[in-house]
Amino acid sequence: MTVAQEKNPPVKLPNEPAITPQIVAEHGLAPDEYERLLKIMGREPTMVELGIFSAMWSEHCSYKSSKVWLKKLPTKAPWVIQGPGENAGVIDIGDGQAAIFKMESHNHPSYIEPYQGAATGVGGILRDVFTMGARPVANLNALRFGDPKNPRTRHLVSGVVAGIAGYGNCMGIPTVGGETNFHAAYNGNILVNAMTVGVAPTDKIFYAAATGVGNPMVYVGSKTGRDGIHGATMSSTEFNEDSESKRPTVQVGDPFVEKLLLEACLELMATDAIIAIQDMGAAGLTSSSFEMAAKGGLGLVMELDKVPMRETGMNPYELMLSESQERMLMVLKPGREDEARKIFEKWELDFAVIGHLTDTERMVLTWHGDVVGNIPIPPLVTEAPMYERPWTLTPLPAELDAAKVPAPGNSPADWQASLVALMSSPDLASKAWIWHQYDHLIMGNTAIRPQGGDAALVRVPGASKAAGHKGAGHKGLAMTSDCTPRYVQAHPETGGRQAVAEAWRNITAVGARPLAVTDNMNFGNPQKPEIMGQFAGAIMGMAEACTALDFPVVSGNVSLYNETEGRPILPTPTIGAVGVIDDIATSVGSRLVKAGLALVLIGDTRGWLGQSIYLRELHGREEGAPPPVDLAVERRNGDFVRDQIVGRKVEACHDLSDGGLLVALAEMCLSGSTGASIRLPAGAPAPHAFLYGEDQGRYLIATDDGGALVEAATRAGVPAVLLGYSGGPDIAVEGLLSVPLQELRDAHEAWLPGYMNSAA
Amino acid sequence: MKSAILVFPGSNREGDVAQALELVTGRRPSLVWHGDGDFEKVDLIVVPGGFSYGDYLRCGAMAAQSPVMAEVKKRAAQGVPVLGICNGFQIVTEAGLLPGTLMRNSHLKFVCADVHLKVETSQSLFTNRYQAGQVIKVPVAHAEGNYFADPDTMKKLEDRGQIAFRYCAPDGTVDGRGNPNGSSSNIAGVFNETKTVLGLMPHPENAVEPMFGGTDGRGLFEGMVEALS
Amino acid sequence: MKARVHVTLKNGVLDPQGKAIGHSLNRLGFPEVGDVRQGKFIELELAETDQAKAKARVEDMCKKLLANTVIENYSIELVG
């Protein structure tokens, strides 16, 4: 079976251009990187070989700027089955079941063609998860758009949301959560971060490492067209004005085919015919085949003329670099090809044996019998460029004294107007216009819907029947995505710490145990020391928080060069997180649905207004240090809250974040259609600092017995204070304001539909 | 009660309705692949929601031409009850088992939300557990649920009592406020003349458990069990 | 030969997509645009060489699948 072809230099194809410095530059390879290539190859590459190096050494595939930093994140815990490095992370959720999840960006394609960019982002992350043998059970999306006043923003929101809906709804996977922010820093570079969570039996997880010399390599799914050629290199360079003319490189998704691919793959996975499987994502056939061979320490021969093609006249270069969607590469056990072919033909999908594994550790590509590419695999991976780029940490800004921030005014009308203004500001206004376009109920397992709690909660299929499950009820998976980019901008270490802590808090606030994290690192140009410093700082903060909270990172994605004409985005390390609750019946949401409940504030309030939404939205200032995160306090408060929830002492719970206490209370009241009245406790800081400050590690809890909860907290050394009770048609703060719920609702719910329906 | 759920390429709510039927009947329904022209004798045929054939060309158009639908038409003519939900409703109208058609939502967007439905009649095997005029809360999830029929057909539907459910306000008022898609006469579901075929856009199968959307949809499945067992 | 099939909504059937296109065009500075109807264009490659036979077959295709005659009209153009 071993081929000696690697000794033969590849032939040049007719019309193949000579490799010039210009062609090298167009492939995004720096001159020293090309030197490195020549040393590995020992000769000038062919075009297809150059294209392969270019894709594999792009920032997107090689993580060449970020790898040294990513290594600092904690990735291990007893419940981690698979950390970073595979298609997705895998954690043990008990009862012989695993949760498999990852978040990935599709930022640049979504800016150029929002519908298809976002749709294929969802398609890609779904494939990452079902490649590993999991049936996806939920999607989440973290979206960041530019200033609503920017002329392009409305079009981008509309296209991205429709694209996510179009793909996820057709696949039949509920989209249960996420976040949407607006900030002028994203005017030229929006962020579309898509996360998928799937469930699989722990003994049926599939990996990419190929084994078995001579085993067949099989291509399944859609045919290959010229979509997205150089997508991976495109997403690794800064934008400039002619990016808009790069439109043809954007891939087009077909969720119908992906649904068939999902069902066909799961059907084949139920047999034992598959040795290894890898989806074709960025850099398509190139990166998928390389990953499989490199991880298995093997070589391969691929007969490219056997790849199913959608267009005529395609060449090896295009076939290796195409980013056509809905395709998979598998290594099968010998002799199982017919069995597999039958399944894929039943689902009306292409199936082709396109090559086999060798022991040469070389990638040999043939085209109608001629060798057109012959690359040694190990050095392409081990000799890949890796940069320790210069970095400058952002200094911690001075703390902003709350006394230097004006109160909303003196009259109840001023106070009332401040709450209405905040609740109808772009970041805090209802996102119902968005999530009503997502099917969030399909599969019948959604226990906490969007706006129903800090984390989405989904019943784990089959859990109650799984042997050995302790609880009488169903097990649930809690999931969330979070990041506060303005904090990260002000001080990356604090911001990184805060993003992890808030994700942990979100999971805690529904009663679940936070287990692990997927991170989506969105930053500007890493060749600038201050941007690299943001990255480094964010990683340091995240690493510290993940360690302190036993919250390892199991998968992730890095998106750099999010800049347009030198203007970078806010540094945005989006944290996706998953937790588990043994009995879903013990969970709580954040909706305040009945009157007479005591409202108890957990955690300390200094009244931190630096970098607050209040400061930005009502005073137009983005200043000061972000609120500090004390991880020991975070853990102590969270563990207490979770114990109270699963002990059934809590009716509703909401963590305090953007907008502070009063915004959290308003959200609980609006989602549950019940008013509330509270008073400031003795010793509280200035009212506007107490009500709108964004101190961390806090929760607002509604309970039948406020006295007992405060007592239990005191015993546990957790600060707790009774603020008031639910009930009535208004939200009232004694002596300060009283806003009819209906008035607040009108403002809160009208902003986004009003914005989307207004003329450009 | 024995039931069969059809599965087309792109169906995606067959699991939801199977879960609901199993919960109510204690019996797992069989799944029937679209290419099967023949399948075992059953008391109820369900055409589930989803995006059969990607909803390409027109929702339900290609599924309506599949071998299994030819068999369904034959059995429906013999009186075997057929329930079409969402994409299933689109398929059964395309197959000619129900009058009218489902057009693009008037606001052009997909909508997933709880809606209120007024039960128009309890005189059918599908609705016998409800009272006429009762208001139930169940979710919708579709982009093409805007029911349309020509004026003659609409008149016949009204005259013969073939309207099963209408979108309404929480208090039962039918005035268009609760209508999520622009549907004519606020129609959410219709029967055939003999009331043995029901098509509806909302998803009663996603409202059968207290923690997962409430239990207002359960009556539909319980009613069928009572009528068909 | 090739058959080109145009499928449009019948007059009197509300066409929300057409309406949205019309509004957008008006907004974009094309006030002269009145009613807009949106449809589908389907091109079929046929092995048939006889015009009349081809036309009859495509008619059948339109009635069976390509158009929903409850709400849609179709027209057929044969080329080549």
Automatic annotation (TrEMBL), chain B:
**Keyword annotations for this protein?**
ATP-binding, Cytoplasm, Glutamine amidotransferase, Hydrolase, Ligase, Nucleotide-binding, Purine biosynthesis
Q: Which gene encodes it?
A: purQ
- Keyword field contains Hydrolase: yes
Q: Does the keyword Cytoplasm apply?
A: yes
Which is one Pfam family of this protein?
GATase_5
User: What is the active site of this protein?
Assistant: C86, H203, E205
Q: Which organism is it from?
A: Reyranella aquatilis
> What Gene3D superfamilies does this protein's entry cite?
3.40.50.880
- Protein name (database record): Phosphoribosylformylglycinamidine synthase subunit PurQ
Source organism superkingdom: Bacteria
Q: Write out the function statement from the record.
A: Part of the phosphoribosylformylglycinamidine synthase complex involved in the purines biosynthetic pathway. Catalyzes the ATP-dependent conversion of formylglycinamide ribonucleotide (FGAR) and glutamine to yield formylglycinamidine ribonucleotide (FGAM) and glutamate. The FGAM synthase complex is composed of three subunits. PurQ produces an ammonia molecule by converting glutamine to glutamate. PurL transfers the ammonia molecule to FGAR to form FGAM in an ATP-dependent manner.
UniProtKB/TrEMBL annotation, chain C:
Q: Does the keyword ATP-binding apply?
A: yes
Q: Which reaction does it catalyse?
A: N(2)-formyl-N(1)-(5-phospho-beta-D-ribosyl)glycinamide + L-glutamine + ATP + H2O = 2-formamido-N(1)-(5-O-phospho-beta-D-ribosyl)acetamidine + L-glutamate + ADP + phosphate + H(+)
- Give the keywords, sorted: ATP-binding, Cytoplasm, Ligase, Nucleotide-binding, Purine biosynthesis
Pfam families (alphabetical): PurS
- According to its UniProt record, the EC number is 6.3.5.3
Q: Which Gene Ontology MF annotations are present?
A: phosphoribosylformylglycinamidine synthase activity
Q: Which family, according to the similarity comment? A: Belongs to the PurS family.
The record describes its quaternary structure and partners as: Part of the FGAM synthase complex composed of 1 PurL, 1 PurQ and 2 PurS subunits.
Please give the name of this protein: Phosphoribosylformylglycinamidine synthase subunit PurS
